[in-house]
Each structure stands twice: as structure tokens, then as C-alpha cells.
Amino acid sequence: MKKIKFILTVFFMFIIYIYVSYISLIPNNIFLLNNEELKLRKLPGIEVVETLMTNNSNLENTINEFRTKSLNNQDINDNVSSTNIELKLFGKILIKNINVTKIDEMRIVPVGKVIGAKMYTNGVLIVGMSEIEDKYDYIQKPYENSNIKPGDTILKINEQRIEDINNLKQVVNDSNGKELTLTLLRNGNILDTSIIPVEISDKKYQLGLWVKDAATGVGTMTFYEPESKCFGILGHGITDTDTSNLINIDYGELVTAKIVSLKRGTPNLPGEIKGTIINSQTIGQITKNTQFGVYGILNNLTALNIDVSKSIEIASRDEITESDAKILCSVESSNTSKEYDIKIEKIYKENDYNNKSMLIRIVDEELLKQTGGIIRGLSGAPIIQNGKFVGAITNVLVSNPEVGYAIFADMMIKELKHLD
Description:
- This protein is mostly beta strands.
- Helices cover 14% and strands 45% of the residues.
- Strand 13 (198-201) and strand 14 (204-206) form a beta hairpin.
């Protein structure tokens, strides 16, 4: 009898686990593109109820932050509708509210040109720690018991916002060696800790932390969306080279870039487009750095020679086939984008969690001769199939540079529109 009770208890707990996991994996906000249908796996006893339909003018709760903060109050003129979905247990007990936003009739201009990015962190990023010698020649580790880790971002000290490295140095020197309370950002969570600065010389103090407040890089612009004047680049986020963490930006600039040279890729030795942003021209503002790309608003179309009349539709996942396609990219000093042949070899339709949505292969002989395949700097190169935008290159297979991964177009578009 006890054995039966134990088995029933385990079975009951397993069922509860399945339901809790199912509910927790469904996001609070879902974005649908074009004719994409809402697909929710159904479990016995859970009903899906549509409760409210709104139009574009009533969507401030879901996209207002991107409209106001990111785009400086410039509207994103989408053809958007929103539906509120409720998940109810046995049709009575509300267990989750989901906002479903649908974006219709949207077109983008594929770009495929090399650009530069300058990004400035929200606070200062800790990239390392080191022992320091105080003014009495003793070795000190002020961070040792502070729970500070590389990858943390210092947002505030004693409730004073830290803007940049110079601001941090000033606050630390003004402390006169008194204990400081640091407000840190770690993996999206805010935490406080304390640290006592060490005096290294007369009235000069240090924390033993290596920090940075800016990052720069070169990549490929994926698309421009004329209605909102927004852009998307890279298909993946910009991470810190020291910590490999996604950089939490306060603001950034999109700038022109010049291709200086090209290093051809070989197996186990990735190639690279070497570019410079010296004497560059600011052409836009970066507002979002996410795992699915970098986004913002473009102010200067002429600098990249973008022709809005060449806009194309966005393909849904169901339209993408494992067959021939093209990428648009620039690998020459003129920074002129050209089409090159590729093959989409595998499609991971259910992937919503990383930027490896498709396995692709470079088959264009001219591009292979120049680059050896996918190289650093080609991330973001738009992929076009049957005249529609289907995605962008994101990663190379290091062992075989002819092969790499790409992100679905819908993931980049949804990331552009969504800021939760």
C-alpha cells in the first residue's frame, strides 16, 4: 500500500512539474510576424481564451519603452494589432496572461555593408581584478571578500550613479579610504556589496578592479526598415572580449567603417574582415544590444547608399526551404555589397532560444576564393531566398569555414519591436 502511495505521489509531482514547466516557458509577450499563427502546445485542463483586441494606438504597454527611450519619442509606424490571451485551468482559474502582438505588412531593405559600432556601457564593466600595492608597500586585495566578479557592472557607488571610468576614479579618490557601497548589475539582477579602497599614494585610492566603459567593433548591417527608420545588425550581440558577457549599453553610435584588409579563413583558423572606424561618420544611434542582434535608428541613408525602393518582404519560417539562397555582403575596400550563392542545408524551425536557426554553406566560388567561407565581420549578412528576407549569418563552424549558422528573420524583427 505504501509503495502504491509513493508511486502515485511521484506521478502526481511529475504531472505538476510538466504543467509548471509548460507555463513558465511561455513568455508574457509574444510577437507574431505577417501570417504567422500562434502555436501553443495544449495540455489537458488548460484553456486558451482571447479576451481583448486593440489597435496600434493602444500598444504603449508593450512597445512604449522602445518608442520613447530608444527612439527618442519617434514613432515606430507599424501595422500592429494586439490580443490578450488568458490561460485558464479548467476554464475558471487564471494562471497566466499573455500579450500577443501581430506585425503585418512589414518590409525591409537588406543592406549587407560593413559598418562600425561604438557602445558605451550603463555604468562601468568589471573585466578583471588584480592585487595592488599600498603606500606602505603591502600587497592588498580590497575586493577579496566583496563578492565582486568579472562581468559585473558598477551602476552606483553610495547611491551616486557612475557614468564612466573618470567618474569612478573621482568617487573612489574622494572616499578618503572609507567603505563604499557598490550597486552592481549581474545577469540582469541588482545587488549591493561593499569594498574599502586602498591608499596607494598620498590621497590616491584604488579598488584593484580592471574596468571599461566602452566597446567598438566592425560588422555587417543586416537591414533597414523604412517605416520606423530602424536598423538591425550582426544577428548576435556584442560581448566583452574579456568576460564574454553581453555588454549592457547605456547608448551607442552607428558609424561608417572602411575595410582595410581581409584575412582568408581556413579550417580551425577563422578569417576576418579588418576594418577601421578612424575618421568615421556617425550615421545612427544604437539603442539595443541583445543576443539576437544590435538595433537602433538610422539617421543617414546616403552614407550607406541605401535605396528604400529595394525593400522586400520578410519570410516566415514555413516559407524557408533547404535549398539555394543568396547572401548580400561586402568584402572589398569599396564596401559595395554583392550577392553570393549559399545553400540552406538545415532548418531548426522550433528554435527560439539562440541565433543558430539554420545551418548554411557558402557555395559561391568567387566568395570562397576571397574569404574561404564565413569570416569575422560577415555576421549580419542578410540571407535572401525567393526574393524574401529569411535571416542573417551569425556564426562560423571553426572546423569548416564554408559552413556556419544563421538566425531567422522573424527573430530579428521581433527583437527590434520588443524590449522586454
